[in-house]
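for the recovery benchmark. tokens below, seq after
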């Protein structure tokens, strides 16, 4: 077991390399590396080992070698290790948050919040680990009994995105380990360092070698292809775009691998005529601007009742224009750079398209001079239904506003999407709010709340936003197989 200090991860290549397999840090087998950049400057952070197919195979072998003992490890012990990871993550919040800012760009305040959120997955699943249990019943026909057992599904492979480098890894790693499964993780190429830090902390918390293998790389299809082509990998969990999810779902079909998919969203944010407008603006800032809007549950489209549209637009516009944009570590900054140049270009093209179709820019913040991939906080009004921005994930700090008068008509527009991850409703009338919430085709609804994410609640989408749930009671189920044993034990007369 090799300990690595997480404060060293950002500075230089690890002496032995960054591929973490079987508890050892090593170079990629073919010694390849690739560059990781700081979105606030565009400059190189450092070269990172780029794992390849042979490393992917070695990781499966390391996971298999560790699987039996972990499966047999009492859940109380698994729980203690996860609890240790929770404590260590909290202790190292500042170092981890700085690492997130360095490779992802988000504002420090968001990065620190992400570390807190990520740590909570370890606490929640430390608590869940000991509550899996089995069930028992009598066969209605008499003569025998039912024993229903829950077994760990086996070796699990994860692919995570760059927008929450700590939390998306934690949301998968914690329940898998709690359930008794070894993990293979391929973090996003843009943000490998945070995932490596999570591995370093779990090692410190006492996780035995081989149970968490982290393979940074810029050749994702080669690594993931090995995993999905190997029958020893029994579970695949992906968070990322719907387009990539579709490809990986097809690949997972070959071996009928159990999958969880957390894909893209297109969240409507509904402000009813009886909404508390100040609260709605506050919630809109949370739902739109957390992580710079590079969030799959970010409010993507606003439906504002005409009777409150002027007030909501003015107040949201003032809040957005006042957003301080800059490098994530700068004091007072709440909006950092986007992940890369392509992301800024895409957001710009969505804004340009909306304006070309008749939308107006009602408010716009400023961005710093100099390098970095910045896009100003922007409010668009009068966005027509055919604008691309209402149909594609913005993944940036732009709020497109539309208005409505009739609830049914608004719901038809809000549901006219192939996505169904998050949604938000503001109304003082509980009956109305619940009625709208139930009719929105979405896996999650924020009612008079702009923040939804909670490790203790089931996160996930309907339609093309995904399959399965992460977090909550459901989160650990994704890593368990059910086995039914028919027990020849006649019922007593
Ligand atoms: P984005 O475009 O924001 O990077 P993706 O869904 O493409 O979103 O990426 C999410 C994750 O999926 C990343 O870790 C990325 O490396 C990985 N990924 C992308 N394409 C593939 C692929 N063909 N096979 C395996 N992993 C992939």
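predicted aa per position
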């Amino acid at each position: 077991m090799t300990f690595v200090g997480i404060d060293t991860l950002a500075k230089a290549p690890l002496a032995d390399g960054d591929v973490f397999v079987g508890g050892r840090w090593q170079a990629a087998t073919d010694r390849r590396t690739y560059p990781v950049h700081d979105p606030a400057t565009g400059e190189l952070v450092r070269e990172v080992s780029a794992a390849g197919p042979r490393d992917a195979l070695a990781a499966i072998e390391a996971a298999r070698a560790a699987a039996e003992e972990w499966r047999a490890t009492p859940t109380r012990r698994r729980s203690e290790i996860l609890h240790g990871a929770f404590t260590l993550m909290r202790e190292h919040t500042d170092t981890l948050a700085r690492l997130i800012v360095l490779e992802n760009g988000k504002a420090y305040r968001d990065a620190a919040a992400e570390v807190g959120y990520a740590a909570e997955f370890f606490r929640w699943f430390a608590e869940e680990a000991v509550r899996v249990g089995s069930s028992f019943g009598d066969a209605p026909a008499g003569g025998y009994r039912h024993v229903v057992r829950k077994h760990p599904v086996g070796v699990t492979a994860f692919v995570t995105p760059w927008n929450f480098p700590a939390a998306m890894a934690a949301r998968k790693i914690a329940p898998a380990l709690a359930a008794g499964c070894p993990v293979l993780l391929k973090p996003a190429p843009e943000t490998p360092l945070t995932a490596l830090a999570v591995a370093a902390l779990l090692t410190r918390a006492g996780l035995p070698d081989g149970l968490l293998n982290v393979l940074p790389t810029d050749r994702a299809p080669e690594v993931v292809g090995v995993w999905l082509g190997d029958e020893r990998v029994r579970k695949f969990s992906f968070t990322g775009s719907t387009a990539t999810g579709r490809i990986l779902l097809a690949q997972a079909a070959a071996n009928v691998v159990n999958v969880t998919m957390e894909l893209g969203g297109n969240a409507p944010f509904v402000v009813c005529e009886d909404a508390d407008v100040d609260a709605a603006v506050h919630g809109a800032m949370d739902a739109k601007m957390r992580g710079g809007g590079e969030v799959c549950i970010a409010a993507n489209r606003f439906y504002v009742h005409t009777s409150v549209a002027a007030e909501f637009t003015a107040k949201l516009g003032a809040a957005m224009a006042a957003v301080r944009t800059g490098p994530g570590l700068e004091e007072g900054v709440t909006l950092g750079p986007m992940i890369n140049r392509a992301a800024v270009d895409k957001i710009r093209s969505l804004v340009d398209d909306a304006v070309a179709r008749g939308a107006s820019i009602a408010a716009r913040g400023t961005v710093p001079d100099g390098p970095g991939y910045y896009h100003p906080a922007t409010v668009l009004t009068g966005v027509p239904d055919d604008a691309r921005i209402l149909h594609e994930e913005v993944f940036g700090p732009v709020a497109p506003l539309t208005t409505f008068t009739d609830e049914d008509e608004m719901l038809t527009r809000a549901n006219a999407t192939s996505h169904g991850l998050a949604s938000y409703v503001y109304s003082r009338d509980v009956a109305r709010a619940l009625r709208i919430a139930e009719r929105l085709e979405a896996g999650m609804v924020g009612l008079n709340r702009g923040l939804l994410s909670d490790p203790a609640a089931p996160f996930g989408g309907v339609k093309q936003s995904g399959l399965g749930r992460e977090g909550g009671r459901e989160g650990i189920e994704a890593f368990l197989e059910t086995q039914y044993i028919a027990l020849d034990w006649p019922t007593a007369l």
